[in-house]
Amino acid sequence: MRNESKIYIAGHNGMVGSAIHRQLKEKGFNNIIVRSKKDLDLTNQSAVNSFFKKQMIDYVVLAAAKVGGIHANNTYPAEFIYTNIIIEANVIHAAFQNKVKRLLFLGSSCIYPKLVKQPMRENALLTSVLEPTNEPYAIAKIAGIKLCESYNRQYGTDYRSLMPTNLYGINDNFHPENSHVIPALMSRFHEAKINNSNKVIVWGSGNAKREFLDVDDMADASIFVLSLDKSNYSSNTEPMLSHINVGTGNDLTINEMAHIMKRVVGFKGKIHFDSSKPDGSPRKLIDTSRLTQMGWKYSIDLEEGLRKTYAWYQKKVN
């Protein structure tokens, strides 16, 4: 990619899209195209086609998605599967019709089966049943991967997919019902601290294990993969596997993470785990060896990333 290449970021206001936007600008890319939801409805096929035809885009980062935690996935399954599938189909097909040079689709590690062997390798996709609590979202993300693979197979396009582990960081969603575990706990611990509460309740037993990646590392990995020449990218991927995992390769229990969060926020009370609430998958650790072999590795450890995120969050809520 050249600095003057026209790059469209779909979902630039979201956590991942905004991080990629920031880093591209920092790296000197000066022809970045963005549109807000009110200016471009990605679920409207006609509007998407018209936008791509007018813009003559070189590269696409497809970070736009409807996302949420366990509660949101359980409450709005139809919205999660419909919205994500239609966004992916519209953007990927419009990229093909308008001869976009390269597209990067961003997915999620929830694509892998619930009880898959850990750490999860890319070839574990579609080998068993999914975690029921987020199955509609996972199926939508699998559809995005298969769209990219299918266009590559049939038309020789250069569409790539990155599957991140659990992400957190600046511009995360802190909604009390629809957020993921880290923003949900950060806001809960923060409120408990300022309200002088003596207890924070955490959903689940605390025994489930999760891996977490700072969104700035995710952005760096995204630009790294998007920038690879096709020959270098192809030589490092298995045939018919266009998706690549991105993460730290390290996990910890929700119990351990909650105690790190307690320390970062400065909460002095106790933590209570509500085992009547769902844990989700018992463990989610991805195998990052393929991306490591390509030459990329994370650089931000969990506590460092949480402290950076909490500093941003405090400014946001004050």
Describe it for me?
The chain has 318 residues and is an alpha/beta fold. The protein has a domain at 7-172 and 212-250 and 284-300: NAD(P)-binding Rossmann-like Domain (Rossmann fold, 3-Layer(aba) Sandwich), CATH 3.40.50.720. It is built from eleven helices and 13 strands. The protein has helices at 15-26, 45-55, 70-75, 77-97, 135-155, 181-194, 215-227, 230-235, 254-265, 289-294, 302-317, and strands at residues 7-10, 32-33, 59-62, 102-106, 159-164, 166-168, 199-203, 209-210, 212-214, 243-246, 252-253, 270-274, 283-284. It is globular. The chain starts with 6 loop residues before the first strand and ends with a helix. The model has no long low-confidence stretch (mean pLDDT 93).
Condensed summary:
The protein is α/β, with parallel strands linked by helices. It is 43% helix and 15% strand.
Strand content: 5-15%
- The CATH architecture of the domain at 7-172 and 212-250 and 284-300 would be 3-Layer(aba) Sandwich
* Regions with little confidence, pLDDT below 50 for 5+ residues: none
- Provide the gyration radius in Å: 19 Å
Strand tally? 13
Gap between N and C termini:
40 Å
Question: What portion of residues is helical?
Answer: 40-55%
Fourth CATH level, the homologous superfamily of the domain at 7-172 and 212-250 and 284-300 = NAD(P)-binding Rossmann-like Domain
Q: Main beta sheet: strand number and arrangement?
A: 6 strands, parallel
CATH topology of the domain at 7-172 and 212-250 and 284-300: Rossmann fold
Oligomer: single chain
Broad shape = globular
Structural class: alpha/beta
